[in-house]
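Technical note accompanying the year-one report. For the benefit of new consortium partners, we illustrate the data format agreed upon in the data management plan: each record pairs a sequence with a structure-token string. No post-processing was applied to the example shown here.
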Amino acid sequence: MKIVKQVKKFLDHHGDRQRPLVCALSGGADSLCLYYLLQKFRAFYSELHVVHVDHQWRQESEQEANWLRELAESHGISFHLKVLDRRQLKGNLEDACRRERLKFFIESAQSIGAQAVVLGHHADDQAETVLKRVLEGASFNKIPGIKAFSIQEGVPFWRPLLSVPKKEIVEWMTAQGCEWLEDLTNLDPQYLRARMRQSIIPWLSEEFGKNITPPLCRLASELEEVEGYLNRRVAPFHPLRTQQGSSVSYDFNQTIPSDPLEWKILVKTICESESFNLSHSQLNDIVRLLCDNKNNKYVESSGKRVKIDHGCLIFSA
């Protein structure tokens, strides 16, 4: 089947048979599909580890975690569990859980010396992400959202199923006679993701007269290529970073971009690296001030500020 060839091709390109691999297992059809497929291709890693996060959102989550542990151990695979305490999480619950998951995955991979963390994101996840970001007004480099290969804090994250529709995953699991868990929060309309999955995207596909998932995924792929091209274009203009105390400075006087879009890409990349969140209007303001060589001008965001002075960006708390 196509899904088997897709995973084998990905592992053949990225895999290192001398190092272990970490599989993030939620218990859904997508992550379990990936788990079973990884076992078919053991030549691409030295050993497999499973990581699972019990969010404690539902009463049955502990029972599901135990089921996954038994499944992994029945195959002789090490199982690593993290149980979240919602009382310790701050801010938006979904974002907080996402951060805790990512932290756990990274720490697990680093402690094991794994070549990568493998995730079960699929084409439907990508389409939802793209549509959401388009409607939010995200910059073009943020629209792709999910990437088949990415690096977080030095740890590679792989998504071999990213081009595979959820329907094909379910069909493969059914054909293999495999069971999976259904997380009912994925159907809860109080969550935007659930509404997009259950009503928004199906409605748009029906009204448009065709499945909108493939075009959205293609848009993500093409924008990722555009992003890579533009990053290579602006690389020669990237200014050096200097730091004095708590002040960080980027001097554009020696490397001046030739195009307004190049200015925007550089400024946005730099601000993101300094955890300085920009609105579209603030980005345009900073670029204009730099291009006009303005002095002693400030832009503030979330308690931080950046100074535009003599062709320099200067960040301070």
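Partners are asked to follow this layout when depositing records. The two ends are 54 Å apart (CA to CA).
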